[in-house]
Amino acid sequence: MAPVRVTEDTARYIDSLVKELPKTDAYNFRRKAVTSEVTDVQATERVDTSRVTTRLMDRDCEIVLPEGIELDSYRQNPIVLWGHDQDRPCGKCLWIKPDADGLIAKTYYTPRPEAYQGEWLPDFVFSMVQAEVLKGKSIGFIPLEMREPEPAEVEANPAVQCVITRSLLLEYSVVSIPSNPAALVETVNKGFSLDNWGITIVGKTKKPTPKKPVQKKANVYGPMADAVKALKMDPNKIAEEAVAALLKRWEV
């Protein structure tokens, strides 16, 4: 049910929870991403402190209450992943806790061991965090309890459809997500062509370029040329007529 590696104790705990959950897709493992400013980066200690989720409505029109996120199981193996890839850890979580606005965590990006050869992923990820290129964090969790939004929540977010009141955190990742996903759509709508940049929009069918009609060249030789093209010449008949003409001239 959860596409992440967990400890044996956590696996057993998940199994016990899953047996009690409704058998619908709403209670499957899911991810939620957030883009926020990293509040603190300490280069010498290779750490950043940032928000990994908020209580704001997300793009799925859902609200995940931070006070209802269970953290104990995650704290047993607090690995931080790159892009939710369980085979590409980039660090570990030193601490994680809820506040009034969401979850805040301190991420430690592991230094390269002396004997290690090749590129070191945590170096790349941390350098991008320092450069404020990577600002996204995303949690992977299992919803445990949910309800319909209350009137005050609907008033604040008219599009909200569901409130997840209790959930189990399994991992969080450093991710690359756009700060304003509508900007790209706005650029396209203003008439800029992505084809010139070599960008393909996934799921969009490219319209075939209409072929230009073939225009016939003007006849520059006039009607005489058309008459010549219409002639059907028989080489044998022409030879016979030429020989007959020569014999007639010889007789004369």
First-to-last CA distance: 112 Å
The percentage of residues in β strands lies in: 25-35%
**How many structural units, i.e. domains?**
1
Number of helices: 7
Helix vs. strand class: alpha/beta
Shape, principal axes of CA atoms = elongated
Order of helices and strands: HEEEEEHEEEHEHEHHH
Unreliable segments (pLDDT under 50, ≥5 consecutive)?
A: 178-207
Sketch the major β-sheet. Answer: 10 strands, mixed
Helix content: 25-40%
Mean pLDDT: 77
How many beta-strand elements?
10
Please state the CA-atom Rg, rounded to the nearest Å. Answer: 36 Å
GO molecular function, one term: peptidase activity
Organism: Gemmata obscuriglobus
Pfam families: Peptidase_S78
GO biological process, one term: proteolysis
Give me some keywords for this one:
alpha/beta, 252 residues, ten-stranded mixed sheet, 29% strand
Quick synopsis:
This protein is 25% helix and 29% strand. It is α/β, with parallel strands linked by helices and 252 residues long.
What is the strand and helix layout of this fold?
Blueprint: H1 8-18, E1 30-35, E2 40-42, E3 47-54, E4 62-64, E5 69-70, H2 72-75, E6 79-82, E7 85-98, E8 102-108, H3 121-130, E9 136-147, H4 151-156, E10 162-175, H5 182-189, H6 223-230, H7 235-251
Parallel strand pairs: 4-10, 5-10, 6-10
Antiparallel strand pairs: 1-9, 2-3, 3-8, 6-7, 7-8, 9-10
